[in-house]
Design a protein that fits this description.
Helices cover 29% and strands 25% of the residues. By secondary structure, the protein is of the alpha+beta class. The chain has a domain at 86-164: Dna Ligase, domain 1 (2-Layer Sandwich), CATH 3.30.1490.
Amino acid sequence: MERKNYTVAIDLGCSSVKVAVGERTPEGLLDVACVVTKPVKEGVHAGLIENIELVSQAIRSAVSEVEEQFGIRITEAYAGISGEFVRCARHTDHVFVYDPQNGVNQKDVDALFDRMRNVQAPDDETIMERVPQNYVVDDSQEVHNPVGSFGKKLGSTFNFILCQKTPIQRLDMALKRLGIRMLGVVSDAMATPEAVLLPDEKEEGAAVVNVGAGVTDVTVYYRNVIRYIASIPMGASAINSDIRTMSVPEKLVESLKLKYGSAVAELAPEDKLVRVNGRTPREAKDILLRNLATVIEARATDIVEFVQQEIKDSGFADKLVYGIVLTGGSAKLKHLDELFRRITGMDVRVALPEEGITGTSKAKVADPALSTVVGILLHGAELGGCMVIENPVAPAATTQSAASTAAAPGMNIPNPVRPSGMRQPYTPTPPAPESFRHVSPRQPQPTPASVAPEPAESEPVAPAEEPQEEKHQPETRRKRDWRSIFQNTFDKINKSFSAAEDEEI
């Protein structure tokens, strides 16, 4: 039986979960074999799991579909995580050069890294990544590669990517319920750029903005180094909630937004209406598209302004030659890139996951909503494949999930096999038929044109700490009071409504 070195990635968002399977090619690219997306109706808020049972059910649905397609049972996976509980903190330290006359050598660099490994996170956080920002020789000369430089002291500033322990533990618990071991967890803000950023953008500077359902991630890249990350607890779900205030049924909000919405009100038609059906013809409502765009723009502006502030806080706003690279499910919102251009004054492009994958894979994942799961897949493939159990027979065309079949009591299954040469992983303790239609303004009994609702768009372990010799903590970055931002939005919306808005028909 042929065994393949699969990598499995799980991206858990606030509105959907995505499971991807890929395999390294001899050329070093990643071949994305399969991506499955399933809705997460409840259980995740702003990136934090709040109902583990509902989340496990959603993940099980996606995993089972993948298992049936490939005739395997998934036992290990890499996962992504995002939310306000993920943060970035800087820490600076130095070592004295062992042999100054012969210059800095690799042992001096290793000694500096060892000191950084001694830095401890606060008790309720874990360090996910340590990213060196630069090297400084004798407090004056900044160098990219210090080996060979002459000086007595070698210093560096590291970015520490920290995450609260509770969100990681809950994600781990959700996967363990499915018999899946979490090989590692990576910040979405670190994974997504690997799938979307071009080499020149990494070198010359760009900010990756991933607008998901409940969280917007910001990653600043400059000189091929991640300089800053931030997670804003606001995304497309906030826009959807505002649209709901226009008496739009929840099941139609996403379709209405993507089909007819605009993030720039002045670019929406002034006199065009769309009819949103209710339970009865009397409950149907006509909505002016200009008013719909006004609601969307008000909340989208909040998101853009917070992104702009995070880019300024990074200290690299004036160095980002390539501006903003916009991705995520909400990047498909009409004119959102234009709104970013108008507010930030920066260049903006909408990116698909295209980096590091094969040509055939690009067609499978040609959706900005899949950028993060592909990034997690690339990250996992660098660390090593995942252990899977291959079923002895080809997958049958049945509705029964492979996961349930593999886990059936008394069933004999082959022992899992891990691909050779891997690193040892860390083990952490039916839709409505008719939705809305165009109508001509103020015309009695217009003839509707059917518009089918679209599915909602989506928006998912740290290495074990070594024994500590000296206890340092990276500096703490200020936290924003995110709750206060929601109070003024409705005032902004109400003042902007057009008098031409129709009421119930």
